[in-house]
Each structure stands twice: as C-alpha cells, then as structure tokens.
Write a structure and sequence with these properties.
Elements: H1 3-16, E1 20-21, H2 46-49, E2 59-67, E3 69-70, E4 73-74, E5 88-96, H3 109-123, E6 131-136, H4 148-155, E7 163-166, H5 168-171, E8 172-174, E9 179-190, H6 194-199, E10 213-226, E11 232-245, H7 246-253, H8 263-276, H9 284-305, H10 314-333, H11 345-352, H12 357-361, H13 363-394, E12 400-401, H14 403-413, H15 417-426, E13 430-431, H16 433-451, E14 453-455, E15 459-460, E16 469-470, E17 477-480, E18 482-490, E19 493-500, E20 502-503, E21 517-521, E22 524-534, E23 537-542, E24 553-557, H17 559-583, E25 589-594, E26 599-604, H18 611-626, E27 632-638, H19 639-644, E28 658-664, E29 669-672, E30 687-696, E31 699-706, H20 707-727, H21 734-768, E32 772-774, E33 777-783, H22 788-801, E34 805-813, E35 816-823, H23 825-831, H24 835-842, E36 848-852, E37 856-861, H25 867-878
Parallel strand pairs: 1-2, 6-7, 12-13, 16-20, 33-34
Antiparallel strand pairs: 2-5, 3-4, 5-11, 6-9, 8-9, 9-10, 10-11, 14-18, 15-18, 17-24, 18-19, 19-23, 21-22, 21-24, 22-23, 25-26, 26-31, 27-28, 28-29, 30-31, 32-33, 34-35, 35-37, 36-37
Helix pairs in contact: 3-4, 8-9, 8-11, 9-10, 9-13, 10-13, 14-16, 17-18, 21-22, 24-25
C-alpha cells in the first residue's frame, strides 16, 4: 500500500464512523504566543479542550503537519541516526470533543480503543500477534489510580500478557506545564524477525527505544486540567485525542524496517544518491547523512510554504538551523560543497504536491529561498574552516582545540561543533568539549533568564461566560465587566492579563497591532497597554488591577491610534491589489505589519521594483483613495463562497469554517480579513511609499505611510528642497547645483589624497631610519599626521619594503585617537603574533577598542594622550 493510500484509508475508515475530515493547520503558528510550531495534532483544537470555543463537529479526523525541534518535544538529534524519528512528520488523528450539550455525538475510551483495533487489524490487516498496548498505571503524587477502564476494554480484544501498565512519563499526556491532560493508551508494534522474537519477548522491549518495537498510535483520554500549582481538576467535558505516526504506519504496511525505506522518503534519497554519486545502503555515515537531508528537506519546504522564511530570530532561526544542519551533513559526509538541496525540491513536490498543494504552487519560491540560504551557509562553512586552519598554525603544539574557540566558531560563525570535532579528529587533534559546553551553558542560561516568565492561574469571576464578545468593528467604547484575570511576572516586572465579557479593543492579528486605551470606573483609569489573542481569549494587558474588579467598567479605545491604524490597514489592501495589477498575479502576501505609524508589506516577486513601477503603484492606490470607495464587509461567509467571490486564501493561515470578507470595489480588492478598516477609502487621505527592498530570495518588502504621516513626510521633503534652493540662490536648477558641488568635492578629495600620498612618501624615508631591531623583528611605533585611508595604504607599503615588520601607527584626528597595527605574514605564521588580539589590549590606553585580522588591525579611542603608552605596551608584548 503506497503512502497516499495509507492516508486515504485512514480518512475513509473514520468517515464511516461519522467523523468530519478537517484540513491540517499550518505547521508554523502565527497567532499563539505560547507556541512557534504545531508539534502535535491537538494544537489546532486546543481552544476546544480549554473550553474557550465550541466545536463545529463533535467527531473529526485529520492528518496534521507537525514539527518537533525545540522545547519539550525535540527529536532533532535522533533524526537520521535511527529509523523512526523525524523533525517534520504527519500525525494521523481521530477526535471526539465531549461537548456537554451534545453528549450523544461524542465517544470516549471504549470506542477509541475498539475502532483503533478494527482499523489496524481488519482494515489494514496487520497481524494481531505483533501488537502490545500500554495503559496508565496510576500515580500517587497526583492521586490518580490506574486506568482500569481502558484495561477492561483492551482485555476484551487482546491477551492480558500483551497489556502493560505504563508510568506517568509514558502514559499520562500533558499539553504543557498546565492545561488539559489525561491518561493515554499506547499501541506498540513488534516488527522483528521470528528468530529475534524467540530470543526475547516483545513486552520487555516496549518503550525501551528498540528500533523494531515502536509506538505506532497513542490514544489520549483528556479528562483533567493541570493547574499552575500542579494539582489536577476534572474537566467539564471529556475528549479523545489520538495520534498515529503516518511514517511509522507506512513502514509497517510496506513491510520495511525503516521509515526512510518507505516511498515517503526513498525518491528523495535516491536523488541525493544520484547528486552525490554515492550509493545508499552501503556505508553508515553516508546513509545517515542522506536520511538527515531527506527529513530536513521536508521540514524546510513545508515551513517556507507556510510563510516562515529562514532568519535569525524565533521560528525563522529554527528553520535556518534545520536547513544548515542538512547542508552541513551533505558538506561533511557526501562531499557536496555546492548548493544541492534546492535540486531536491521538485522531487518533494512530485511526492506530496497533490495532497499539499501549497508546496506545488510555491515551488519556485521555495527553491530560490533554499538556494540563497545554501550559498550563504557554504560561505560561512568555508570561513569557519579557514579560521580553524589558522588556529592550528598559531597553536601547532597544542593538539587540543580550546573550548572557547570552538564555541566562538559555533556562536559567531554558525560553525557546528560536531564539524569542528570531525575536522580536528582528521588532523589528530581533540576538542575541549568541557570548555565548549561551559560557553554553551552560559548562553543557555542567558536565554533562560531572558525568557523567564511566571504565570499564575486564572482567577475566574464569572464562569458562565467563556469568551469575549468583540464589538470593536462598530464601537470604540462599551460597558464591560471583568470575567477573569491573572498575574504575570516576567523579567522582574509584573503585569496583568484581563478578559472582559465584551470589548471594543482589537487583539493583534493578521499583522494589525492590538489597540490601546483605558478601563474606566469612577475616578480610576487603568491603561490598557496591549491586546492579544490567546487560545481564543481576547486578553487586555495592564500594569495594575482596578481597586474594585467587580461591576461595570467603561472600556475605551484610543481613537486616534485606531484611526491611524485603520488608514494604514485599508491602504495595505489597496496596495496589495495594485501590486497584483501592475506586477502580475504571481504576487502573494508573505507577511505584513500595520500600526498607527506605518504599514509594512512583504510579497513574492523576483526583482527590484523600478522607480516607474513604484510610481504606478502609488498612483493607482491614490486614485482609489480619491474615488472614496465605501467598504463592503460580509461576516460569517462560508469559506467556499468567499473564494467564489474572488477572495484569496493565504497559504500558512488557518481559517475558520466561516470568514469575514472585506471588499473595496469587487473588481479591485476582495480579501479575507479580521482587521479594522475605514468606512470609505477617502478617509486614508494620501498614500506614499517610503522604501522597497529584498528581505529574502524572491521576497520583497514595501514600507509606506498614509494620512497625516504622509503629509508630514511630503512637507519635510519640500522643506529640504526649499532649504537647498536658498543655499543655491544663483542656481535655477537645484539638482544641477548639487551635482556640481559633488564634482568639486570629488576633485578636491583627489587633490587631498595626492598631497597625503606625497606627504607619506616623504615620511617613509624618515621612518625607515627609526626602525628598532628586537630579535629578528623590525619594530616601529610612531604617531603620524595622516588621514585614516592614507595610514592604511602607508602601512601596507611599509610591509612590502620591510621584512618581519611589526608596525604601530598612531593618529590624532579632530581630537579622536587612532591606532593601526600591521604585522608581516611571516611573524604571524612563525611567532603566532595576532594584530587583532594585540590592538584590543593596547587600545585600553586610549580608552578605546578595536579588532581586525592577525596581520592587520585598527582601533579608535577618546584619549590621544595615551598613544605613547600604547606604543610602549606593544613593544613590551613582543619582547
């Protein structure tokens, strides 16, 4: 059974059990501050478990794209080294939401267990004798007894010697440190050969990391809520949450012993084999490399398709790290020193593009982004190797790489420590891993400290109201009461999160920032600093609580901030439509930010926009503003109907069954949007682009302003032009006047450089006489009256004329002290002298700092009177 049939059979089975098939949520999470990535199938249903939203369907089935590379769920180091762990994987799941108002529609342990067994043994026809199951054995610290109910149902299906009690670690599932949780029952499969099964019973290998006795399906019975003090309380409704590894199931059904031997991965692995000219299955280290690359390719492709580009922060950093890990394995073990991972994208699209159309439609963008990342990191690897070899030359007798240097390579240059160890081993060296780990732990401690956050339990004032009614589309002010609050401590600062029964405050979403404003009761005014959405709750951030938290408050939005924000948001819609009309339909939104000051819009396009294109975009947007087009807003529109209306659904966004459609002229701009907007486009006033540039391969960014900010910008530019006119009074054409002045400046600069060069030439003969011999080093330290560019040229010319030169030049330009060190390459190689290290030390005498390379370095400082002391210290350091 090929993998696509495996997936479809799962869907068909649960459809027959009255489940509704739902689409996978994006792998990259954008509107949940508690998670960067979907790491379990339940993430998209979390709000239902928390009781913050009601399910549309009580029974659902899906396959969910998941990523596990950080935090509690982190499989990164096992990937490729074993046969069944992955970074990105698919989780097949069936769900029952215990809606108390519709108990007949849901189910719990009995049905979940019986249906799992029916699917595996009667539909997929897997040998019943290969299975073992685990149930929760209880936990005294939580005061929970063993799950005798699940045991009873399993006993009716499978021999009791195949039912094992599991620990809290293995058989009690928790969403996080607090929140919904419950016992689980795992289904394990033994795919060992008959001879191996005779040697040892499979029950002894369950949950012991045996590659052929593995968990295949986890049936979670969510019935508790873990409070922040660690205690458990019963949930008002019980839920079923199951997760089966699609890759593992495919492995079992295809009769192979490794996930990587299934059709899910083999096409990609064979392509890697062809590119590298190395056969898969012959050597362990090259096999591991191919598996790692095939796995990581999947994670990166789907992340980019979901709108997450590699970067240096948060989710983007994780994706960059995964991609670089794949590049490094190819570089080290497959001898692939040129970009190659991008060549694998078409194979991945061919394999999975029909099931996940987002990767097919964005194939070209994904390839360009990966190619750019490959080029950049291969350059970094090359630089790291050069620094490594330089270190070996400077420390020839050591035979051990200093841990601090290994950490510097890792932290500053992104050079993996395992690559450092590999190269060191080839040279007969070792790496001080204790020193490296010390630096790594210090970095982790800094990160932990920065991220430290203490969150208390919600104090519920009204348990009858679960969610907030948002009235902010129509009103900027309303009466409201607090239904729950909690205290947060972060970075030694305290603040509060408040949930109201009704609010006019817009919570940050879809690129639009949250509102600010006030909660007013009598004489007391509580400032609302920000508004966010978390688990379907609209959360108002305040620095303090009202003295009396009960009763009615007046919730008032800062109207000026909201007005400026809606101007920018509506202008974003007009600009998006203009981009598609002027540049083409390939333009797709890849990110946005809308606040009261400006708008930022990221979009797919492969070349820099010309001045004419930017002018056309501005012109079209301003025409639409002057037309004063009234907004057409439709709420609770079925998704299919919205698409029929011409609205674009963005890949990487999770949409509800019904959506809100914002239209400014149905022939011009129709978009799905939850944000706030102008009543008519004329309110925007004026639109002005202030910057355009690339942020990644195939991704451009435009920043623009509207209304008062645009007016202010234009006035400032006119002011500059008027000021220039007053300077060039006799010049009719100001532009020509500036160009003429620049030409004169360039001519004068050439004259100055010529004079400085002559001055340096005459100085050189005098300085050659002042060189002092220290051993075989020709030492010279002197203050010169030259500019910085001339000093640099002079230093390199001196180095060509004098062998074994150690030159220190000082300067005092406009009261600022400068130091330059030039050391002959022979001294760097033979004596291990390092200009960069030396200048950092002597620059202390001029109250400054600097750096550079072993043979050349510069520094600046505030204390010119310390130049002589710096010269003396440099001399002492080489004696």
């Amino acid at each position: 059974m090929d993998s696509n049939s495996v997936r479809q059979t799962f869907f068909n089975f649960f459809e027959s059990k009255k489940h509704t098939i739902v689409a996978s949520a994006p792998m990259v999470i954008k509107n949940d501050p508690t998670l960067m990535f979907t790491n379990a199938g339940m993430n998209q249903f979390k709000n239902i478990f928390l009781g913050n939203s009601k399910p549309t369907d009580v029974r659902v089935v899906n396959t969910q794209k998941c990523l596990r590379v950080s935090g509690k769920h982190n499989d990164l180091e096992e990937v490729g080294h074993d046969t069944y762990h992955h970074t990105m994987f698919e989780m097949l799941g069936n769900w029952s939401f215990g809606d108390p108002t519709r108990p007949a529609g849901g189910y719990f342990k009995k049905e979940a267990i019986e249906w799992a067994w029916e699917l595996l043994t009667e539909v997929y026809k897997i040998n019943k004798e290969n299975f073992y199951v685990t149930v929760f054995g209880g936990d005294k610290s939580d005061g929970i007894h063993e799950d005798s109910e699940a045991y009873k149902y399993w006993k009716n299906i499978i021999p009791e010697d195949r039912i094992l009690y599991g620990s809290k670690k293995d058989n009690f599932w928790e969403m996080g440190e607090n929140g919904p949780c419950g016992p689980c029952s795992e289904i394990h499969i033994d795919i060992r050969d008959k001879e191996d099964k005779k040697k040892i019973n499979g029950s002894e290998l369950v949950n012991n990391d045996h590659p052929e006795v593995i968990e295949i399906w986890n049936l979670v019975f969510i019935e508790f809520n873990r409070k922040t003090d660690g205690t458990l309380e019963q949930l008002p409704a019980k839920h079923v949450d199951t997760g089966m590894g699609f890759e593992r199931l495919s492995m079992v059904l295809q009769g192979v012993k490794s996930n990587y031997d299934t059709d899910i991965f083999q096409n990609v692995i064979q392509k890697i084999s062809k590119i590298s000219d190395i056969k898969y299955g012959e050597k362990e280290d090259t096999d591991i490399a191919m598996r790692v690359i095939a796995d990581h390719l999947r994670a990166v492709v789907f992340a980019i398709a979901d709108g997450q580009l590699p970067s240096n922060i948060k989710a983007g950093y994780v994706i960059r790290r995964i991609l670089r890990r794949a590049i490094r394995y190819g570089y080290t073990f497959l001898d692939l020193h040129e970009p190659f991972i991008n060549e694998l994208v078409p194979v991945m699209v061919e394999q999975m593009g029909d099931v996940y159309p987002e990767i097919k439609s964005q194939k070209d963008l994904i390839r360009k982004v990966i190619t750019e990342e490959e080029i950049a990191f291969l350059r970094t690897l090359s630089l790291g190797i050069k620094k490594f070899e330089q270190y070996l030359k400077v420390n020839p007798e050591s035979k051990k790489i200093d841990g601090a240097f290994a950490f510097e390579l890792f932290d500053t240059y992104g050079f993996p420590v395992d690559l450092t160890r590999l190269i060191a081993k080839e040279k007969g060296w070792d790496v001080d891993m204790q020193g490296f780990n010390k630096g790594l732990e210090a970095q982790k401690n800094r990160s932990r400290k920065a991220a430290q956050k203490n969150m208390e339990d919600w104090v519920v004032l009204n348990d009858k109201i679960k969610t907030t009614e948002f009235v902010g589309y129509e009103k900027l002010e309303t009466e409201a009461e607090i239904i729950r609050y909690r205290k947060i401590t972060e970075k030694n600062k305290e603040f509060y999160q408040i949930v109201l029964d009704k609010t006019p405050f817009y919570a940050e979403s879809g690129g639009q920032v949250g509102d600010k404003g006030l909660l007013i009761k009598g004489d007391q005014k509580i400032q609302v600093e920000d508004v966010q959405k978390e688990n379907e709750l609209i959360i108002h951030f305040t620095k303090k609580l009202p003295e009396d938290i009960n009763g009615k408050f007046k919730a008032t939005v800062n109207s000026q901030k909201r007005l400026n924000t809606v101007n920018n948001h509506s202008a974003t819609h007009l600009m998006h439509a203009a981009l598609r009309k002027i540049l083409g339909d390939h333009v797709e939104q890849k990110g946005s930010l809308v606040n009261e000051n400006h708008l930022r819009f990221d979009f797919s396009h492969y070349s820099k926009l010309t001045d004419d294109e930017l002018a056309q975009i501005e012109k079209l947007v301003n025409e639409k503003i002057r037309e004063n087009i009234p907004i057409s807003e439709k709420r609770n529109v079925l998704m299919a109907d919205a698409i029929e209306m011409g609205a674009m659904a963005l890949f990487g966004e999770k949409y509800d069954d019904t959506v809100r459609v914002i239209t400014f002229d149905e022939k011009y701009s129709v978009e799905l949007c939850t944000g706030t907007h102008v009543a008519a486009t004329g309110q925007i006033g004026f639109f002005k682009i202030i910057s355009e540039g690339a942020i990644a391969a195939g991704i451009r960014r435009i920043e623009a302003i509207t209304s008062e900010k645009a007016e202010q910008f234009i006035n400032e530019q006119v002011g500059i032009v008027n000021e220039l006119k007053s300077i060039f009074k006799s010049q009719k054409d100001v532009v020509k006047g500036v160009q003429s002045l620049m030409e004169q400046k360039a001519q004068l600069q050439k004259q100055i450089e010529s004079l400085q060069g002559d001055k340096a030439q005459s100085l050189k003969s005098d300085l050659l006489k002042q060189i002092e011999k220290i051993g075989n080093i020709n030492f010279l330290a002197v203050k010169v009256d030259l500019d910085n560019n001339t000093i640099r040229d002079f230093a390199f010319k001196m180095d060509k004329e004098v062998e074994n030169l150690f030159l220190v030049l000082g300067s005092d330009i406009d009261g600022k002290a400068g130091l330059t060190i030039k050391i002959s390459d022979s001294l760097v190689k033979e004596k291990g002298l390092n200009a960069s290290n030396i200048i950092r030390e002597i620059a202390k005498e001029i109250n400054g700092g600097g750096g550079g390379q072993p043979h050349f370095a510069t520094a600046g400082g505030k204390n010119s009177s310390g130049l002589q002391k710096a010269f003396d210290k440099a001399k002492d350091m080489i004696k």
